[in-house]
Design goal:
This protein has helices at about 20-30, 80-90, 100-110, 120-125, 135-145, and strands spanning about 5-10, 10-15, 50, 55, 70. By secondary structure, it is an alpha+beta fold. It has a 5-stranded mixed β-sheet with strand order 2-1-5-3-4, with helices on one face. Bound molecules: FE2/S2 (inorganic) cluster (2 copies).
């Protein structure tokens, strides 16, 4: 079968070019379990990673689309990353399940705009669902991380 080559967190990977969701490759093959399965339908954002700098739903992104791509997961962020520091400062998580996806969406936003307004944060983050309702703390933490990055 034809192969597809791409990077995950700056490490090179090569696998069969197939219609398999990136989410399952990350979790089952690359053993990067930080990316979560929520709905599997592109509706919740729990599986969000960055591909070439854009926040994407890894449950809806097929390996066949990733030729030459740069994938970044929650594991790519160091412990002292401004987003982690702000997440702790604002005590954001409750159950925590949605948070890797929230943080990767936030990371894609701050890559482009380090001083987003609360409206811009809401608009960008609107596809990331939190059943625990941590939205206000997420927004505060994103704005704080932007100032400190
Ligand atoms: S698991 Fe991918 S959007 Fe919900
Ligand atoms: S912290 Fe529980 S779903 Fe978001």
């Amino acid at each position: 079968m034809e192969k597809v080559n791409f990077q995950i967190n700056a490490k090179q990977y090569s696998t069969a070019k197939e219609e398999k969701p990136l989410l399952w490759y990350l979790r089952d093959d690359a053993k990067l379990k930080g990316t979560k399965f929520g709905c599997g339908k592109g509706l919740c954002g729990a599986c969000t990673v960055k591909v070439n700098g854009e926040a994407v739903r890894s449950c809806q992104t097929m390996l066949s689309e990733l030729s030459g791509a740069k994938v970044e997961t929650i594991e790519s962020l160091g412990d002292n990353h401004p987003l982690f520091v702000a997440w702790k400062k604002y005590n954001v998580p409750q159950c925590g399940y949605c948070q890797p996806g929230q943080i990767m969406s936030a990371s894609a936003l701050l890559d482009k705009n380090k001083r987003p307004t609360s409206e811009q944060v809401s608009e960008h983050m609107s596809g990331n669902i939190c059943r625990c309702g941590t939205y206000q703390r997420i927004s505060n933490a994103i704005q704080n991380a932007g100032v400190n990055s």
